[in-house]
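dumping this here before i forget
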Amino acid sequence: MTDKPLVNRVANSTLLTINLEDYFPKTPIKTFDLKDYLFMELILKEKDFRQALKEHDWTQYEGKVLCIFCSNDSIIPTWAFMLVAAHAASYAADIVQSDEETYLTLAYQKVLSDMNPADYENKRIVIKGCSGKPVPVSAYVELTRMLQPFVKAIMFGEPCSTVPIYKKPRK
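structure:
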């Protein structure tokens, strides 16, 4: 065996890692599912709904993004979403009509639209794969779409173990 020093080829490489988790919204997210307020999970009774909203603890949304949605296929009148928003307005940092996954998709679209893909011109990119937060798949797709015209290569995973996604053809 030779006495060659160990070399960390990953640390010495020109790979640039993008971790989409770094762009996860900073404001906590809470959801409000209208399904829980429907009679037999089908029908919204206005009087009962208004009473339930009066009794609801709105302080739990303090400083959070509130996503209002209905998880089943009931037809919900527009005013029901508006009533929830009106009750939560003085507590929530933001209120949207969507489920959490859709909210995250839109939040990532906004963040990624602010990126300048030309900043990554001729770079070899690793889009970090393991995430402790629910980064939507759509964010990975959008980042790949944005970067592909500019970069030399796109890989997915960790710098030490990547899956090749794209490599610019040689001219």
